[in-house]
Amino acid sequence: MSVALEKQDAAPKDAALKQEALGDQRSRRSGGREARRAMRAAPLADDIKPVRAGLEGGSYGPLNRNDQERIHEAVLTLLETVGFANAIPSCIEALTGVGAVYGDDGRIRFPRGLVLDTIKKAARNFTLHGQDPKHDMLIQGKRVHYGTAGAAVHLVDVEKREYRESLVQDIYDAARLVEGLDNIHFFQRPMVPRDIPDPLEMDFNTLYACVMGTSKHVGTSFTVRENVQPALEMLYAIAGGEENFRARPFVSNSNCFVVPPMKFAEDACGVLEACVEGGIPILLLSAGQAGATAPAAIAGAVVQAVAEVLVGLIYVNAIKPGHPAIFGTWPFVSDLRTGAMSGGSAEQAVLTSACAQMAQFYDLPGGSAAGMTDSKLPDIQSGYEKGITDVMAGLAGLNLVYESAGMHASLLGFCLESLIIDNDMLGHCLRCVRGIEVTDEALSIDTITEVCMNGPGHYLGNEQTLRLMQTEYFYPAVGDRFSPKEWNEKGRPDILQRAIIEKKRVLAERFPRHVPKLLDDKLRARFGEMIKLPRSGMGG
Fold it and tell me: Which pTM does this prediction carry?
């Protein structure tokens, strides 16, 4: 028999053997697939999820140690020589009582000894509580938490591609969406209820909508001092008494006590004093805009923000030593061609990261802003601007990343669908923050040896693969990982379509009841027509 005939005769046998081997491989892969499906069905404990609140960041920083020292020295110089203007009488009394100097020019200056002593004694390593303890956040070191914030005056209607004025119902709807989004760890008021013009009713209903919509930690603002007391009465009632709230305050006050550059905001100072006295933690928020109300030099913007927030820290500790306060350096960026704010810029990303480093320099709990895309809709621009700014803030180890989800148009618009999309994006950010754990087991020598020497030549059904698939890897909820064939068979959906469907499903089904209806009845009886959110908008 010729060699050619021998090869021809052997070909069917070879094909059969290959087919049999392929069948075995498919069988093994199918077994692995079934095992993976079973693993996906099993719930995970919070402490072994691939991403979770409080992961340690800090692997990135735009400032070296010498840079930080120079910023610190510049801050001390400014506080000693320039100081602050426009202090209200109670502020002057509190600050001069601890050693600040009130000058003939009406400015209060701060000796460096006072600044350093305050930093040393300030509260750190404290917890921001949720109504549900499972949402408590330990704020220390470089532990990272993402959340919302803002005062948007518009809701983004993605289906109509238009903006409309935001309503108190929108705040409640945003809160109940966030309640079920694992990668958004806290809910600070993201919108202003434009349907409530009275400042007292606006402040009260904003807080009411937030605390009724989510059991996560809530942040809110007040217009004037007098508006704090009714809110405290409501919070004490929800907590089961003033003592209970003071032990576990589940609301913090976002307080813009400073008007950059280096002036006190009179109304906000009154609010700060009332909140400290009422037991509410304070986010000390300095929001200068580089090139407008802060230096155009990025380092200078950081210097001014740090100086301003340290004054707030002295203020809080002069009223009540050790009161929980967050180092809220929030310098924003201008597009210097127009003067407009540019929240999604690369400069914003490095500014926020530098502020995280300065909070760590002082070992103070830090909060700053990221995710404030300039895009008007959840599109490609929104994705890259949010993703870059949010992940850099996390990698820098910022404790509280405000504005990180839902925001558009540099804080002017808020989008409910974006909350759902951004929850996926923040999962990616957290996975980057977590980094890579290098252990003897993770180096996988035994696993590689087994697969290569004794196994099938792949890792699909391997014990290590099955064990790590949920704890090592993050999977998006609405992000598209279909093959082109699957995508085509499913009607070629895009992420926004899936987010719209998910938003409508959640808003039709989720009406949180962590505040019992009986207690809500008592609040409505106590405050009467002051509560503007109808029960019908809360599921009846």
Answer: 0.91
